[in-house]
Amino acid sequence: MKSFEELGLDTSILKALKDAGYENPTPVQEGTIEWAVEGHDVLGCAQTGTGKTAAFTLPILQRIVGRNDKGIKALVLAPTRELAMQIANSLRDYSKYMKVRHTVIYGGVSAYEQIKNLRRGVDVLIATPGRLLDLHNQGHVFLGKVETLVLDEADRMLDMGFIHDIKTIESLCAEDKQTLFFSATMPPDVRKLAMGILKEPKQLDIAPAEQKVDRIEQEMYMVRRDRKRAMLNYWLENNPEGQVLIFTKTKRGADRVEEDLQEQGYRAVAIHGDKSQGARTRALGDFKRNKARILVATDVASRGIDVDQLPYVINVDMPENAETYVHRIGRTGRAGAFGKAISFCCEDDRDILHEIEKHLSMELAKTTDHPFVLQDNVLAEVLEKPQRGGSRSGGPSRGYKGRSGGGRFGGNRRGGSGGSGEYRGGGDSRGRSNDRGGERSNERSGERSGERSGERSYGGGSRGGSSFKSKERSGSGSSSAGGAKKKFFSGVAKKK
Q1: How much is the pLDDT for 169?
Q2: Which domains occur in the chain, in start order?
Q3: Phi, psi of 182, deg, nearest 5
Q4: Among 124, 143, 348, 383, which is most buried by a count of CB atoms within 10 Å?
Q5: Is the pLDDT assigned to residue 392 strictly greater than 50?
Q6: What is the DSSP code (8-state) at residue 273?
Q7: Cβ atoms of residues 316 and 247 within 8 Å
Q8: Using one digit for the tens of pLDDT, what is the confidence trace for 164-181?
Q9: DSSP letter string over 329-380?
Q10: What would you report as the CA-atom Rg of the chain, rounded to the nearest whole angstrom?
Q11: Nearest to 16, CA basis, from 121, 126, 99
């Protein structure tokens, strides 16, 4: 392994790295910096937490150190505001001993200050695609001198509908530019985009998906769709310590989780596309400073969440694909620490469950010793392995742990999870998240506030049915998988 000094970085950069506590480069940093400094395009498959922000910002700084010519020399594209701000903060730290002008532009806030910063002159621009094109079309941004283009988390940008924006922005940069392309996953559409942009790239693949969850204890709870709210409160009551990142499928679902937890006395905040930028920044800051124990997020808003020593991730709503599952649970178990990922799998989640198991090349253990477990016949159907041709044999799969007969909730049961069926009382249980493309909507035409007709987010209950507060908090019994009544908690302890 080469040191930062051996990678040819300027002394001003090395001094800043030392101040920041960097000792040796990570694999993605070593490979990217060496190739980028040599002038190569780079295609990197690496998730957040591998050190890729430094991997692409340090070569940018090395290329412009000591220069005083005007114009935007480097452009970094990010899918979300949070990630863009995180990159900007890192760039500021690495360039503290250099005269480098940088700014970050994103949607959801007034463009006035951003335009002022652009007029003062910028060497490095960090931006989300929608706002960047808006300001370019208004004549505030000229990209013709961009000699280094970075695409960070390209898979997410494609998921959000930015592919045409990316192609347009790429065409506006200098023809002989260097491009550094990073993605957490490399499905065919992402690779096709990369190969259409990059010129004879050096390729880097850091930690295949199967290895990214090695330090994460995964637990999957087989939960009835209409008991996810009760399940969450039940889990929190029995795990009173440690910060928790909760994922929901929709913006409305995130709001309902946040409101419910606050009513129960928990310090909870939420981030999603309908939140103002100021609210998102405050919420994320409170969570990082441990002023809030619980952060509720949608997938779109989750990019840029980088919290050291985060012990728990909970998937209240299952992700739509295995790659998103890996990304979600990868928020914990970082920097050599162990973490735990908890997922609630309901009757709608059979297909995504087995997709995740196939992706991870492992059969995940399932936990059923809690008051809100699926009925036996439903559980068997969910656990049944998909058969070629779609036939079902009717018997349960192996590898799940049955109920313990009423003991204390929890225990060290390993498992993972998946599923895409958000808790809804009506509508299509497999409906796609309305957050997809949300950043684009935020930047161009204002935040979308509605959900699809018929979708009922977490905690909504069935239409015409009773709510959690009238049924769950009463301390009444819950029907177990075997049909017998089991008594469960009568309330949720207040957390100060």
Answers
A1: 97
A2: 5-207 (3.40.50.300), 211-486 (3.40.50.300)
A3: -125, 140
A4: 124
A5: no
A6: T
A7: yes
A8: 999 999 999 999 999 999
A9: HTTSS-TT--EEEEEEE-TT-HHHHHHHHHHHTSPPPEE--STTBPPHHHHH
A10: 24
A11: 99
